[in-house]
Design goal:
Bound molecules: 1,3-dihydroxyacetonephosphate, iron/sulfur cluster
Number of domains: 3
Cofactor: [4Fe-4S] cluster
Helix content: 40-55%
Catalytic activity: iminosuccinate + dihydroxyacetone phosphate = quinolinate + phosphate + 2 H2O + H(+)
CATH topology of the largest domain: Rossmann fold
InterPro entries: NadA, NadA_sf, Quinolinate_synth_A_type3
Largest sheet: 5 strands, parallel
Function: Catalyzes the condensation of iminoaspartate with dihydroxyacetone phosphate to form quinolinate.
Number of helices: 15
Radius of gyration: 21 Å
CATH architecture of the largest domain: 3-Layer(aba) Sandwich
EC number: 2.5.1.72
Structural class: alpha/beta
Strand order of the largest sheet: 6-5-7-9-8
Length: 352
């Protein structure tokens, strides 16, 4: 069914019938069969901005994962409805920080007499209640394209940062972009008493990194980089900052999905690139820029299975239901969570 011309035609017709009432957003990791129907494609930051930029659209169909659709619901008006074509499109990284675990961590920081020095910053890849927690406690949201600016802001507000839930983005930004040392970072393990940390470690740390990671990017290793360099002479290695620190250290370029696309667009014809990010995007980039030799950093790593949940049959079902007047798979965030999560998101959107 992936390339079923009947489904392509049905999606096209449903989009046409809904006209300006519909706005379809697509994250760069989505399948080609889905991305062809997106009105706008982007990284998490661009999609959050775009969701807020179309107040006249009655329906926002979000082709991405659950936390992105939640953020879109938070940033859109009450009258707008955000739809996720498959409710199983979650994110394993976002699931690694639950609200109760984060509250427990914060209570431990309060008991340690440190909470008033700590600014919580959460990566966009987190549930709405974690974003609201950050909003309530003087913190902000960041994405991979503005993590440095969000952390600069946070260190103007306090002495330490609790960075949720991606330890790799937090560490890579602190060490490689802000000149901190690895010793300035500690990892809070939510499955261990007191995060597995001593009072002294917490007092010394500047970055308290949550023990979370992306199950896709976490699979690229230092050997992936060594192997590709041995296989392809002169290759440029370009990776997402969700990759492990040792991978990023060995890479030539680092950036969000939007940055990866811009870098490859600007690359000279004939140059070779090994890209460490989700496979749907890497394959698309190889097709978009055939004059460059673009390959996947490690052929043993696979697609993001939750991003891939959004396929053409689910998209057609969501769109045709709207045509018939039925809203399916609506994502709604309650008012209190929306209020505080928006505080944290607005702090990010206001970054210089
Ligand atoms: P960006 O598109 O912001 O780089 O995010 C990557 C990602 O993993 C989204 O799930
Ligand atoms: Fe989550 Fe990683 Fe998939 Fe992005 S690529 S949705 S961070 S599991």
């Amino acid at each position: 069914p992936a390339s079923d011309p009947g489904l392509v035609e049905r999606a096209r017709k449903a989009k046409e019938a809904l006209g300006e009432r519909l706005f379809v957003l697509g994250h760069h990791y989505q399948r080609d069969e889905v991305i062809q129907f997106a009105d706008v494609t982007g990284d998490s930051f661009k999609l959050a901005q775009q969701a807020a930029a179309r107040p006249e659209a009655e329906f926002i169909v979000f082709c991405g994962v659950h936390f992105m659709a939640e953020s879109a619901d938070i940033l859109t008006t009450d009258a707008q409805k955000v739809i996720l074509p498959d409710m199983a499109a979650g994110c394993s990284m976002a699931d690694m920080a639950t609200f109760d675990q984060v509250e427990e961590c914060w209570e431990a920081l309060e008991d340690a007499g440190l909470a008033d020095q700590v600014i919580p910053v959460t990566y966009m890849n987190s549930s709405a209640d974690i974003k609201a927690f950050c909003g309530r406690n003087g913190g902000a949201v960041c994405t991979s394209s503005n993590a440095r600016r969000a952390l600069d802001w946070a260190f103007q507000q306090g002495e330490k940062v609790l960075f949720l839930p991606d330890q790799h983005l937090g560490r890579n930004t602190a060490v490689l972009e802000m000149g901190m040392s690895l010793d300035d970072c500690v990892v809070w393990n939510p499955h261990r008493p007191n995060g597995g940390l001593t009072q002294e470690q917490l007092e010394r740390a500047r970055m308290i990194l949550w023990k979370g990671h992306c199950s896709v990017h976490g699979r690229f290793t230092a050997e992936s980089v060594d192997d590709v360099r041995a296989r392809i002479p002169g290759v440029n290695v370009l990776v997402h900052p969700e990759c492990r620190h040792e991978v990023v250290l060995k890479a030539d370029h680092i950036g969000s999905t939007e940055h990866i696309i811009k870098t490859l667009r600007a690359a000279p014809a004939g140059s070779s690139w090994a890209v460490g990010t989700e496979l749907n995007l890497v394959k698309r980039l190889a097709q978009m820029f055939p004059d460059k030799n673009i390959s996947f950093l490690d052929r043993t790593v696979c697609y993001c299975s939750t991003m891939n949940r959004i396929d053409l049959p689910h998209l057609v079902w969501a769109l045709e239901s709207l045509v018939l007047g039925e809203v399916v798979n609506q994502i709604t965030v309650d008012d209190d969570t929306t209020h505080w999560a928006k505080v944290a998101l607005d702090r990010m959107l206001a970054l210089p």
